[in-house]
UniProtKB/TrEMBL annotation:
Belongs to the GLTP family. Signal peptide: none annotated. It is found in: Cell membrane; Cytoplasm, Cytosol; Endosome membrane; Golgi apparatus, trans-Golgi network membrane. It comes from the Eukaryota. It is a peripheral membrane protein. It holds the Pfam family GLTP. GO terms for biological process: negative regulation of interleukin-1 beta production. GO terms for cellular component: cytosol; endosome membrane; Golgi apparatus; nuclear outer membrane; plasma membrane. It comes from Malurus elegans (Red-winged fairywren). This is Ceramide-1-phosphate transfer protein. GO terms for molecular function: ceramide 1-phosphate binding; ceramide 1-phosphate transfer activity. Gene3D superfamilies: Glycolipid transfer protein (1.10.3520.10). It catalyses: N-(9Z-octadecenoyl)-sphing-4-enine-1-phosphate(in) = N-(9Z-octadecenoyl)-sphing-4-enine-1-phosphate(out); N-(hexadecanoyl)-sphing-4-enine-1-phosphate(in) = N-(hexadecanoyl)-sphing-4-enine-1-phosphate(out). Keywords: Cell membrane, Cytoplasm, Endosome, Golgi apparatus, Lipid transport, Lipid-binding, Membrane, Nucleus, Transport.
Length: 194
């Protein structure tokens, strides 16, 4: 893949490295995987710029917390923030827990959308809307939901998405999606339990 371009293989590698034998989610590869997913969102054009900009800000915040607080895993971050008490957590709009929750919801949307792309349905606007309605829509106001629904109508074809994956012909992209989705799903499940 060209420098700065989305590569599904890089996302797969990052999410493969995320989970330890103790089922902890390591922050460094988690954020690396997110940086790859952000490149995917950015490759979709201006239609998704509001989502990608929001994800960039959240990844940057978690990265700064990882470095400044020396967090190694999502679990260590959550435990340390919860130890300060619920009032302290609610008082910080830039908390790692709150930021993680929002990225977690977006990860579910991307997971469902990528699963839909893998399934072979050529109607990407329907796949994206279904994934959005099953994940993020419940957390957005009406105006954002309507704007998102309109944005989905401008999505490129399934073949264009598979080309964006930068892993070869469509069949290979579908195969790599088949490898990546379980790792993304595993990270999502562990985080959901957390």
């Amino acid at each position: 893949a060209a420098a700065g371009a989305f590569s599904l293989r890089e996302v797969l590698d990052a999410f493969q490295r995320c989970v330890t034998e103790q089922r902890e989610v390591l922050l460094e590869p988690y954020l690396s995987g997110w940086r790859g997913l952000i490149r995917f969102l950015q490759s979709l054009g201006a239609v998704f710029s509001f989502i990608s900009k929001d994800a960039v800000a959240k990844v940057q915040l978690l990265e700064s917390l990882r470095v400044s607080q020396r967090y190694v895993s999502l679990q260590s971050m959550v435990l340390q923030e919860l130890a300060a008490g619920p009032a302290a957590l609610r008082a910080r709009p830039d908390s790692g827990c709150r930021t993680l929750l929002r990225l977690h919801r977006a990860l579910r949307w991307l997971q469902l959308f990528l699963e839909g792309l893998r399934s072979g349905d050529p109607r990407t606007s329907v796949l994206c809307a279904d994934a959005y309605n099953a994940s993020l829509a419940a957390h957005h106001p009406w105006v954002v939901r309507k704007a998102a629904t309109l944005a989905f109508c401008a999505l490129p074809s399934r073949d264009a998405f598979l080309e964006i994956m930068n892993v070869g012909p469509p069949e290979q992209a579908v195969a790599v999606l088949g490898e990546a989705i379980p790792y993304i799903g595993d990270v999502y499940s562990i985080t959901q339990e957390l």
